[in-house]
């Protein structure tokens, strides 16, 4: 039987992943001696996430988050994806719909050509990072299902190495903050949103209710480096273990000054979107917060994580307000991270998927293939 180039590449990918020819679609492909043929088809629809509490950051508040749900179908297998678009990122369901309408995956006949497909998607238009991530996630889910393995295994990562995840406490009144802390009693680290005039009150209120370690996310809310450094020393005394994006991303000189003097590790978030930003972040931060919605998905997130590690930087795997679809996709990278902030699905009341779980505060991956989810 003549073996085509595409057959060789795909079967080699299965072999390289260390898989036996005994599972699911991948097994059928091998034992039948052929690769499924057909066109790759993309579908998408808007959805609105309902938040359990009003979510307040340094500069905004909201009660819902718009998302775009995607799915990619090929030869009877479906991969699921998602674009989460909180308003401050500048993407909407309308912009996502316009972008995704331009994505023609039917020109590809082999979903294993991930690099070619995602290069094509990335070049369609500038920006649209969350929309691009929704295609990336669905494609990874599809290919993982065809191989019969989750992506953390395909990447060679140890699921025992996942960190605890933080649970986010948004800016609110003292009464509501204490209620949120009580609801988060199962978590071993809490993430506190700061950046307003009542920062110390927020931390003291949480400290009156729990002694667990705290991470703080300032969302660029502080403006003066000297006051920021003074605040960080105070936060360290209050049991804080890391600080995220304390100054506006444009203040690079101030950020370098602050990081060089900080007693706590400082992570860049808004200032580090995609891979090229990582090079600029060296010397400005001790680590970076990688989010799929910022970097266009799993492919670039994995490259960013490995590159940051090689540069001696620490990793946080984060998320937006998302269903378990996108959160579980991000969780596939969790074994590479020192910190995880994967609670986006826990902040909503209308999740559509079941995926990675938090057990005893720890990110816990499952062996479901692809991104590790099932629809509910």
Mean pLDDT: 90
Percent strand equals: 15-25%
Uncertain segments are 1-34
CATH class wording of the largest domain = Alpha Beta
CATH topology (level 3) name of the largest domain: TIM Barrel
User: Structural class from helices and strands?
Assistant: alpha/beta
Question: Which term fits the overall shape?
Answer: globular
**How many helices does DSSP assign?**
14
CATH superfamily (homologous) name of the largest domain: Enolase-like C-terminal domain
Report the end-to-end length measured between terminal Cα atoms.
42 Å
Largest sheet: 8 strands, parallel
Radius of gyration, taken over Cα atoms and rounded to an integer in Å: 21 Å
Number of strands: 15
Helix content: 25-40%
The assigned CATH architecture of the largest domain is: Alpha-Beta Barrel
Strand order across the largest sheet: 4-5-6-7-8-9-10-11
* Order of H and E elements: HHEEEHHHHEHEHEHEHEHEHHEHEEEEE
**What's the number of domains?**
3
Summarize the structure.
With 376 residues, the chain is an alpha/beta fold. Helices cover 37% and strands 20% of the residues. It has three domains: 35 residues, no CATH class; 112 residues, Enolase-like, domain 1; 222 residues, Alpha-Beta Barrel (TIM Barrel).
Main features:
15 strands, 8-stranded parallel β-sheet, globular, disordered N terminus, Enolase-like, domain 1, single chain, alpha/beta, 376 residues
Molecular structure report:
- There is one protein chain.
- The chain has 376 residues and is α/β, with parallel strands linked by helices.
- The protein has 3 domains: 1-35, no CATH class; 38-149, Enolase-like, N-terminal domain (Enolase-like, domain 1, 2-Layer Sandwich), CATH 3.30.390.10; 154-375, TIM Barrel.
- Helix content is 37%, strand content 20%.
- It contains 14 helices and 15 strands.
- The chain has helices at 5-16, 24-32, 93-101, 114-124, 129-147, 151-154, 174-183, 199-207, 225-237, 252-261, 275-281, 292-295, 298-310, 324-331, and strands at 41-56, 61-74, 77-84, 167-169, 190-193, 214-217, 240-244, 266-268, 287-290, 314-317, 339-340, 353-354, 357-359, 362-364, 374-375.
- It has an 8-stranded parallel beta sheet with strand order 4-5-6-7-8-9-10-11. It has a 3-stranded antiparallel beta sheet with strand order 1-2-3. A two-stranded antiparallel ribbon has the order 12-15.
- The longest helix is centred in the middle third of the chain and has 19 residues, at 129-147.
- The protein is globular.
- The N and C termini lie far apart (42 Å).
- The model is unreliable at 1-34 (pLDDT under 50).
């Amino acid at each position: 039987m003549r073996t085509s180039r595409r057959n060789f590449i795909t079967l080699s990918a299965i072999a390289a992943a260390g898989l036996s020819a005994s599972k699911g679609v991948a097994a059928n492909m091998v034992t039948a001696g052929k690769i499924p043929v057909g066109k790759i088809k993309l579908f998408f629809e808007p959805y609105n996430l309902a938040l359990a509490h009003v979510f307040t950051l340094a500069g905004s508040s909201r009660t819902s988050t718009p998302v775009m749900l995607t799915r990619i179908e090929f030869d009877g297998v479906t991969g699921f994806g998602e674009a989460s678009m909180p308003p401050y990122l500048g993407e909407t369901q309308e912009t996502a719909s316009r972008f995704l309408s331009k994505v023609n995956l039917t020109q590809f006949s082999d979903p294993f050509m991930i690099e070619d497909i995602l290069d094509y998607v990335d070049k369609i238009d500038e920006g649209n990072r969350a929309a691009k991530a929704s295609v990336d996630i669905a494609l990874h889910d599809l290919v993982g299902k065809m191989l019969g393995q989750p992506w953390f295994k395909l990447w060679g990562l140890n699921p025992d190495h996942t960190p605890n995840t933080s649970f986010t406490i948004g800016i609110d009144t003292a009464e509501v903050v204490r209620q949120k802390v009580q609801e988060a009693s199962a978590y071993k680290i809490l993430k506190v949103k700061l950046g307003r005039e009542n920062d110390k009150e927020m931390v003291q209120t949480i400290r009156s209710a729990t002694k667990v370690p705290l991470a703080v996310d300032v969302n660029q809310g502080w403006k003066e480096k000297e006051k920021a450094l003074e605040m960080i020393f105070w936060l360290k005394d209050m049991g804080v273990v890391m600080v995220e994006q304390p100054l506006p991303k444009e203040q690079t000189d101030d950020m370098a000054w602050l990081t060089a003097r900080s007693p706590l590790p400082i992570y860049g978030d808004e200032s580090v979107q995609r891979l090229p930003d990582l090079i600029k972040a060296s010397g400005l931060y001790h680590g970076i917060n990688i989010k799929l919605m910022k970097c266009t998905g799993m492919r670039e997130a994995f490259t960013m994580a490995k590159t940051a590690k090689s540069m001696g930087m620490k990793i946080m795997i984060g998320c937006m307000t998302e269903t378990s679809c996108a959160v579980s996709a991000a969780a596939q990278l969790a074994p590479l991270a020192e910190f995880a902030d994967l609670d986006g699905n826990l902040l909503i009341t209308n999740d559509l998927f079941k995926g990675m779980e938090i057990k005893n505060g720890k990110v816990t991956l499952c062996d479901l293939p692809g991104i590790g989810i099932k629809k509910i």
